[in-house]
Amino acid sequence: MEFLLALGAAFAAGAVSGLTGFGLALVGVPLLLFVYDPATVVVLVMAFSLLINAAVVQDSWRKVDRSLVVALAPPALVGVLCGTEVLRVAGEERLRLAVGILVVLSALLMLRDVRLPGTGSRIAPAVAGLLSGALSTSVGLAAPPVVLLLASRGLPKANFRATSALFFLVMSVFGAAALAARGLIPEGSLPLAAVLLPAALVGKLAGTALLTRTPEGAFRRITLLLTLATGALGATTALLALLR
Question: How far, rounded to the nearest angstrom, does the alpha carbon of residue 43 sit from its chain's CA centroid?
Fold first, then answer.
């Protein structure tokens, strides 16, 4: 039963990422935590992210906004290194609560077609990348800054999906290297990932097939609702921790 849940989690994570280019961790992590310990889940999600994002990039390379990824990625990698210091100064739960509330408010505004100020500026990608990297290592909310930037700029669904997938592929490669360098890959997690990866890949194929049937407006709502869910989940878990 537990293995079937893990297969379902891998499939669902792959499907969401295959459709949108992000959201893999949002779907996969909560389900996989019912079955495996957090350290194993981190490795599984990282493996899924490497495979699925690489597959999305491979089938949509011509749709990638490469100049935008180049603007996002270097600041994000700097942010990854700074994230632990941000966590030390601010405290994880308070920071997660504040960021979660801000993400929820931003997504709600964009669902009402209110454009976030400054997202069209030349410096916006650097800021979004830096925030994404810092939040990834401080509170585990890497996606919202980049997703909100792409959505606010009105990227068509194919370009949105391809660009976000390439960005998060770069982040995944960096994260996997960091895990390996620090010896944080639990014994047995890689063979387990290899067993679950086919389910994630089948999910990706299902998500890609769904993309062609999803209108631009619906795609935008899906991405913003996923971002809203990310922020709400982060804020809720932080608030519950602070109230204990």
Answer: 15
